[in-house]
Amino acid sequence: MYAELMPKLLELLLELVPQARVIALLVNSDELSTERIIGHMQEAARAKRVDLRVLKARNTASENDAAFATLVQLQADGLVLGPIGFRRQIAALASRHAVPAIALPRDFPIAGGLLSYGPSLTAAYHLKGIYTGRILKGEKAADLPVQQPTTFELVVNLNTAKALGLIVPPLILARADEVIE
After folding, report:
1. Are 74 and 22 in contact (CB under 8 A)?
2. Taking Cα atoms as reference points, which of 129, 122, 69 lies closest to residue 99?
3. CA nearest 113: which of 85, 93, 84?
4. What residues does CATH 3.40.50.2300 cover in the chain?
5. Helix (H/G/I), strand (E/B), else coil: 1
6. What is the pTM of this model?
7. How far apart are CA 166 and CA 157, in angstroms?
8. What is the pLDDT of residues 10-35, one digit of tens each?
9. May I ask the CATH class of domain 2-119+152-180?
10. CB 114 within 8 Å of CB 16
11. In angstroms, what CA-CA distances link 78 with 53, 83, 148?
12. How far apart are CA 71 and CA 83, in angstroms?
C-alpha cells in the first residue's frame, strides 16, 4: 500500500507549499517497492506539474547525508520520504536545510518532521487483537480475510512549520488527527 499512498503525500505537501516547483523523493534503493513508488510519484508529479527528483539511499546515515547534499544542490522546495529508516536524522536534516518534508509514519513529525499521513497504527493493532481473539477461539488464520487499512491519520508539526516560515492552511489543520505544538 506504500506505493499507492505516495501521491497523497505529494498532494498534502503541495497544499502546504503551493509554490513548490521541485520536489525530491527519497527512497531506499534496497526496498522491493521502490520502483513502484517512483512510478506512482512520477505520474502524480506530472499531474501536479512539478519536477520530481528521485534520490536513492540505503538505510545508512552516511547515504542519507549524501542524499541531502544532492537535495540542497537541486534546490528542492520539498521532500517526500519513501520507506526509509533514520527518519529522526532526516527530520533534523530537513530542519537544518529548511526543507518541508512529509513521510508516511506518524513518528516523523513527532521526531521534528513537518507532516505525516498514513495508516492508523491504533486501528491496525485493534484489528490484530480481533484476529488474535478469533484465532484463539478456534478459527484458522488461513480462513481470515486479508484487510487493507481503512483509517488514516494526518499529523502536523506546527513547531516545524513555524521554523520553516510556513503557515499551515486551515483546511489541513481541520483534517489533522493530531497537531503538535
Report:
1. yes
2. 69
3. 93
4. 2-119+152-180
5. coil
6. 0.89
7. 11
8. 999 999 999 999 999 999 988 888 99
9. alpha beta
10. yes
11. 10, 17, 29
12. 17
